[in-house]
Every structure is written in C-alpha cells, then in structure tokens.
Amino acid sequence: MTPTTSSDSRHRWFILALIGLAQLMVVLDATIVNIALPSAQNDLGFSNDSRQWIVTAYALSFGSLLLLGGRIGDLVGRKRVFVIGLTGFAVASALGGLAESFGVLVVARALQGGFAALLAPAALSLLTTTFTIPAERNKAFGVFGIIAGSGAAVGLILGGALTEYLNWRWCMYVNLILAVPAAIAALRLLGAEQAPAVRPRIDIPGAITASAGLFALVYGFSNAETQGWGAPVTIVALAASAVLLAAFIAIERRVEHPLLPLRVVADRGRGGAYLAVAIVGAGMFGVFLFLTYYMQQTLGFAPLKTGLAFLPMMAVLMPTAAIGQTRLVPRFGVRRLVTLGMVFGAVAMLILTGVTVDSDYVTYVLPGLMVMGLGLGLVMAPAMSSATLGVDRRDAGVASAMVNTGQQIGGSIGTALLSTLAASAAQNYGAAHRPAADLAAQAAVHGYTTAFMWSAGIFAIGAVVSWLLLPSGAPELEPDAPAELAFAH
Domain total for the chain? Predict the structure, then answer.
C-alpha cells in the first residue's frame, strides 16, 4: 500500500477549498436573490404575481435535473462535469446580471439551476472519492456541512450588502468572481479520471420520468403557495408527480443501467440520511423565510442588517459542525448526533413562537438563532457524510445528487406548506380581531409564529425518523483506507 504523502494531503485540502467554494455558490444562490427582488422588480417593472418565478425557476430546474446531473458525472467524468457546471453557472449569472426584461431574468435563473444540477452532485462526489481516510473524511465533511448549513444565511448577508451598496445585478455578477477562478483551479488541481472500459448508456426513460416527476412535484408545491392547494393546476401537478415517480421506480427495477440504482437508497442508513436532509430543508426555511420577513417588515431592519442578524447562528453552527463531525460522530455515532440536532431545531422554533409585534431582536430572536445554529451544526455534516458513506465509486455522483435532491425537494415542500399555513393563520387572525390597531402587523406576526410552530413539528418528526433509521454506532471505515486521489501530481 502506498503511504499518503504530505504533498498528497495538501492537494486534497486544496481540492476541499475548491469544492467548498462551488458548494457555497450553489447554496447561497438560492437565497441571495431574495433580498434583491424588490430592487429588481422596481428596475424591470414586473408584477407581484410574477415575482415568485425568479426564485421558483432556479428551484424547478435545479431540483428536477439533479439525478440526471449526478449520473452524467458518474458516466462522463466528475472533473469534466464540475468544470462545465462552473462555467455554465458563470455564463448564466452574467446573463441574469445583464437582463433588461423579466423573461430574460427568469431564463437566466433556470439556466443557473440547470448548471447547478451538474455542479452540486459533482462537487459532493469528488469530496466522497477524494477523502476516504476516516480522520480526513470527518474533517472534510465537517467543513462541507458548515457550508451547506450556513450558505443560505451567507446569501442573505451578501445579497443585502450588494443590493444596499451596489445594486441588485451584483447578486448575479458575484458568481463570476467565484466561478471563473474555481473553474481555472479545477483544471489545475483535478486530474484526469480513468474512463470506464465500457460506458453504459444513460437511462433515458428513467431520466425523463425522474426529471418530469420532480419538476411536477416542485411546481405543484410552488403553485400551492400562490394559488392554493385546491387549484386545478396544483392538483394535476401533484397527481402527475406521483404517477411519474412511481413509473420511475418501476423502470429502475428493470433496466440494465438505471439512472438511480435502487441499491443506493435501499440501504437503511443512507435512506435515513436522505430523509434527514430533506426534513431539515423543510424545517429550516421557517428560519430564513419568515424571520427575514419579520425582521424587515416588523422590526424595520434594512436588507444588510437583516442578513447580519443571522451571523450569530453561523457563529454557533461552524464550530458545532466541525467538532461534531470530527470528534463526536466517531464517539457517539450519527444517530445520536442527528437526532439531538433535530431536537435542538424543534426547541429553536418553539423559542421563536414567542415573538410579537413589540419584541426586540436580542431578547426574542437571538436565542432561537443560537439554538438553531447548534441544531444545524449537529445535523448537516453527519447526515451528508452518512448519505454518501459506503457507496460504490461508480454510484458516488447519483448518491450525492440524492442529498441535494432531498434538500431541494424538502425546501420546496417546506416553503409551500409553511407559507400556506402562515397566510391562512394571518387571514383568520385578521377576521377574528377586527377592528384593532395595527391589525395587519399583528396578523402577520401571528402567521409567522404559526409557521414556527409547524416547523417545530417538522423537526420533531425528523428526530423520530433519525432515531429509527440512522445507524447507531460510529461509521465503519477501514482505518488505513487509501484516498482515491482526484488530483494530478
């Protein structure tokens, strides 16, 4: 066995920095545009009803194409797909920054999502195949978990700063500053991968049914947020999603080279990890979405101040993720840590249910954010590591895609469900308390706290699921497993 040299180790950490930068770009782009939306709307003149499509276009293409993107990386080569994803993401971002109409901006966001569907699974699969030595793998996934858990908050901070001091277009242009150097570094650091002797064909029926089914699922929940659960389009989309995804599973059981080999998700530990990531995605949007509204509309925070208000959560999340993955997972195992993290998430949401129109940030919001930082720090890195642990190298891309798919689908479902519940609660409160001073503000806050209560329930369900499905012991890896180096010497 060839010993790992210090030069090899340094190269791997450079690769981690590269992968982390790419993942940060993908995650923060889901939220960086949110704060810039009012400025973009004033500039381009689109309606309130159209506004949601700036966000939804990204989520639709990203969520529906992830499985296909992950399998393309397995078949074509992760380095090639990683560089293509970075380059395409940069071009799409430039198009969005230059947009002079609503339609061009929506197309640019959809293209961003499509290239992110190539980039995100390639990044995580490169991490999985580069770091196989247990101690290094734990450190690497600790860093990756920090980025995955805090990227949305970074997007809010960066979006607020760019919008306030430059203009909304820089929320697009900033990706060029990240993507172009990353693509150049990837060409230098990542070595050529050995092509398979026989390259299997892409599972076209599986790709069509999976992409269409996921698209219909995300679209259905997004439409429910604005048009209601009883709208014909919502019902048709969700029904079509169920049929298409059932057909996808039937196809995958029969084809010779499936898009998603069912062995990847059949493993109990990996399946539990995918569910944990999806549940966290659904629950955490209660923090980012409704707290953003609360701080801006109720507390009167400016965009940048709103973003900075999330910093304490990140300050807790980062060391928690690092210590949890490197020291606590080997000692206590994934199940205990992820379950405890879910419990912290539920407690954080219960704390936030106490906010009122007259609350102040330090007393009522800050404690909830700090506890949420603990929760996300304990969940994200162990769950992501467990979701890709033990997969065959040939399945690393699609296994990684499942992690991102879970996060995207969970986030879409959570956003639609919580938004609907919040709107209904606010409407009922307003009807029951007429006439009253500052009724609109009171009703809005009641809607937010209702969403926080339901988010607490989502995290509680996550705790039960994690305890029942995740492995109880420490992850099993060979102590002297050599890293499958993904860089050039």
Answer: 2
